[in-house]
Design goal:
The complex is a heterodimer of chains A (about 550) and B (about 200). With about 550 residues, chain A is an alpha+beta fold. Helices cover about 45% and strands about 25% of the residues of chain A. With about 200 residues, chain B is α+β, with helices and mostly antiparallel strands. Chain B has one domain: CheC-like (Chemotaxis protein chec), CATH 3.40.1550. In chain B, strands 1, 2, 3, 4, 5, 6, 7 and 8 form an 8-stranded antiparallel sheet that branches. Classes of the chains: A alpha+beta (about 550), B alpha+beta (about 200). Chains A and B meet through helix 7, strand 3 and strand 6 of A and helix 1, helix 4 and strand 5 of B.
């Protein structure tokens, strides 16, 4: 069947119209004669193989390619030529059929052409041929590779997700805080180790249980967890039936693509027990304090009654005929009795204040007159120590106000008394200023300014607490119970005001308090303003006090 | 069956197809670089209508068919049929994939078509050897779904020569059938060829 060489070279004869068309078609076409010699080699295969048409013609396929050709290809060609059998050679089973490449750019960078082949017998011009067609499937291969890599990436991602989930699960499980995931139907879908510990249950047993089996109070707890919960304290029931307090925080999440809540559960039973113990402890302490105060009030009252008897009798004794020495003794007794009475009054007063039993009067008062009277009362004591005592009344300060005159007087007396007590020379000024006002109220600031010894900053802090005295040695010298300022503080506070002190050691002190008073509608008081305030008589009590120092010196 | 072939004739054909199967297995082993054996336990001739309904019953709509036309001493078509499940396993083995194949995509389809091509060419060349004539073949076609359409397309033919082929690919057993769609004259030619062969053997 060998074809003469000259005829094989007769490409122009083959290259009629169909030959030209095949030569330009977009896949590879090779025609072999019965001997296996190449008689047609189109442009596509010439370009892809790098073997020009003229170089390929007349050669055998094995000679054209440097590498040995796959056995499957050679067998298929043989079967086509010898047995007239057709074959398909897929790239799936023949990934490297022929070394074909496409030039991508001028630098000559090549890309492998993935291809598949069909091999068909052909009978023409009385001879037998083998037609090889090569199809470019590079794009499908790339698409497949891309899909495969995507699938692999998805696989990796899924694996990583699974790992992360495992990690989170183990974190959640080993969390020191109880955790449960509860679905929309109120069923526990997940419970961690700690939660099982808290409720004395088995982790697996808890899953699938209705949350109501766990949460007992309040009954509508599950309704609440339809929304996130900041923090609530809930009573839990343990598996053994006992109860505990838990603090629950819930957030809305999803479990297996359905809405659910994740509950964090802190066992606060111990904390709660401590809290309860502390509360009852505090209640007991409060009760004890109240009882003590009541006792004090009662005792003071019981002592005062006979003391009043003594003092009354003493006054009668004083008015009877006594010689000088007897008179001297009575005076001493009277002074001591007065002191004792004052102390008792203070104690009783404080007790009342402490027990919250302070009833404030609300009377129409001429404030200017009240202050001037006070100053008049204290003037004698100031004079005795050669200390000046003056009033600076702001002209804005209304005369007619409503207040408890007794209590206001008590506070002012206390402050002025202290000022005199601790001032050896200089002046004591009482200043009353208006700091604020409305149509019906007025805010006043009362200040008692002395040029006394002053008070250290540290001592100022404790000045208004009961029984506190800056210097106990001083206190013994100057007298007093240490209750005065504490009483003042309580009264001012009961009046809705505040009290304080500004002082420097050696530069005197200013005790002040601010209270808001209602304006009085009594025009009568305002009219009195024209008249000068009458100075009251000096009270006997005042006289005794004034004489006190002399007697004290005598006794000492 | 006996209406067409005697037991001896059937045995002779089975023997011939086994030779062809052996060739195909060798070619496949080389191609896939894996141990592959094909064996033909029996062959049978049926009226085409019966063969068609037999395969429709057997495979329903889950069949995978690779078919080739042939021509030479007589014309006909050769069909290689697998149950879809078997085709998945064959594709997995051929593509050396670790993952089980769940669907036939382009790649699997191409691989199965080529495998069918190899097997059918081998069987048909055995025919040729038997008849001492060339049997030319066309390119293979791939069809899946129902075997009905394929048999409908073979109208004008009378008989089906059904050859059972058992594959063993890397230890996996896969069952397949090769059916030659023929007319009565072709079968007569086969019988003559078979008797000549039997004479030669005895």
């Amino acid at each position: 069947m060998a074809t003469p060489r000259s005829e094989l070279k007769a490409q122009p004869q083959v290259a009629d119209l169909f030959g030209a068309a095949l030569g330009r078609c977009e896949h590879g076409v090779i025609l072999l004669n019965a001997d296996g010699d190449i008689v047609f080699w189109n442009n596509w295969i010439a370009e892809a193989s790098g073997v020009p048409v003229q170089a390929a013609l007349g050669q055998r396929l094995e000679q054209v390619f440097e590498k040995p050709l796959p056995k499957r290809l050679l067998q298929a060609i043989d079967a086509a030529l010898r047995l007239r059998q057709a074959a398909t050679l897929s790239r799936a089973l023949n990934p490297r059929l022929l070394p074909l490449e496409r030039t991508l750019n001028e630098a000559g960078t090549g890309e492998k052409i993935e291809h598949q082949a069909t091999i068909k017998p052909l009978e023409a011009r009385g001879g037998r041929f083998c037609l090889i067609e090569l199809m470019d499937v590079t794009n499908s291969v790339h698409r497949e590779q891309f899909l495969k890599s995507q699938a692999a990436e998805m696989g990796d991602l899924a694996e990583e997700l699974a790992r992360n989930e495992q990690h989170l699960r183990s974190l959640l499980n080993t969390s020191p805080v109880g955790a449960a995931i509860i679905d929309g139907g109120g069923i526990v879908r997940y419970a961690n180790h700690r939660l099982a510990e808290i409720v004395l249950g088995d982790q697996q047993e808890l899953v699938g249980m209705a949350a109501n089996g766990l949460f007992i109070e309040p009954d509508d707890f599950l309704k609440q967890i339809a929304e996130p919960i900041d923090t609530v304290e809930v009573r839990f029931r343990r598996r053994d039936g006992t109860r505990l307090w838990a603090q629950v925080t819930a957030e809305v999440t999803s479990f297996e693509r359905a809405p659910a809540v994740l509950c964090w559960v802190f066992d606060i039973s111990e904390h709660k027990a401590t809290e309860l113990a502390l509360t009852s402890e505090r209640d007991r302490a409060t009760e004890q304090a109240r009882a003590r105060t009541e006792f004090l009030a009662m005792v003071s009252h019981e002592i005062r009654t006979p003391l009043n008897g003594i003092m009354g009798t003493l006054r009668m004794l004083w008015e009877s005929t006594l010689d000088n020495q007897q008179r001297d003794y009575v005076e001493t007794i009277q002074y001591s009795g007065d002191s004792l009475l004052a102390i008792l009054n203070d104690v009783l007063d404080l007790s009342k204040l402490e027990a919250g039993r302070i009833d404030l009067a609300n009377q129409d008062v001429d404030l200017h007159r009240l202050v001037r009277n006070l100053v008049a009362v204290m003037a004698a004591r100031a004079e005795e120590k050669a200390v000046g005592l003056s009033v600076e009344m702001d002209k804005n300060v209304p005369r007619a106000v409503k207040t408890d005159p007794g209590r206001l007087r008590e506070v002012l007396l206390n402050l002025i008394g202290n000022a005199i007590k601790f001032t050896e020379h200089g002046d004591i000024k009482i200043q009353v200023t208006q700091v604020d006002q409305t149509d019906v109220t007025v805010r006043l600031r009362f200040a008692v300014k002395d040029t006394g010894i002053g008070i250290a900053a540290k001592a100022q802090e404790q000045l208004f607490t009961e029984f506190y005295q800056v210097d106990s040695a001083e206190a013994r010298r100057r007298g007093g119970t240490g209750l005065g300022l504490a009483i003042c503080k309580r009264i001012v506070e009961a009046m809705g005001g505040n009290i304080g002190v500004n002082s420097d050691v050696g530069h005197g002190s200013t005790f002040w308090f601010g209270i808001t008073l209602s304006r009085s509608t009594k025009s009568e008081i305002e009219r009195q303003s024209a008249r000068p305030a009458a100075y009251p008589k000096v009270s006997p009590r005042h006289i005794l006090l004034v004489e006190d120092n002399e007697i004290n010196q005598k006794v000492a | 069956m006996t209406a067409y072939f005697s037991v001896e004739e059937s045995d002779a054909f089975t023997e011939i197809f086994n030779i062809g199967a052996g060739k195909a297995a060798l070619a496949m082993s080389e191609l896939l670089d894996a141990p592959i054996t094909f064996t033909v336990p029996f062959c049978i001739v049926l009226p085409l209508v019966e063969a068609s309904s037999y395969f429709q019953r057997r495979f329903g709509t889950d069949v995978c068919i690779i078919s080739q036309d042939f021509s030479g001493p007589f014309d006909g078509a050769a069909l290689l049929m697998f149950h879809e499940e078997s085709s998945f396993r064959l594709a997995q083995a051929a593509l050396k994939s670790d993952e089980p194949v769940a669907a036939i995509t382009e790649l699997e389809r191409e691989a199965l078509t080529e495998i069918g091509n190899i097997i059918l060419n081998a069987c048909l060349s055995s025919f040729g050897d038997l008849l001492e004539r060339e049997v030319a073949t066309s390119l293979p076609r791939y069809v899946s779904g129902s075997s009905g359409a394929v048999f409908d397309g073979a109208r004008g033919f009378d008989l089906g020569l059904v050859v059972k082929v058992d594959f063993n690919v890397e230890g996996r057993d896969i069952e397949g059938y090769v059916t030659f769609v023929l007319n009565v004259d072709s079968v007569a030619a086969f019988r003559e060829a078979a008797s000549r062969l039997l004479d030669r053997l005895h």
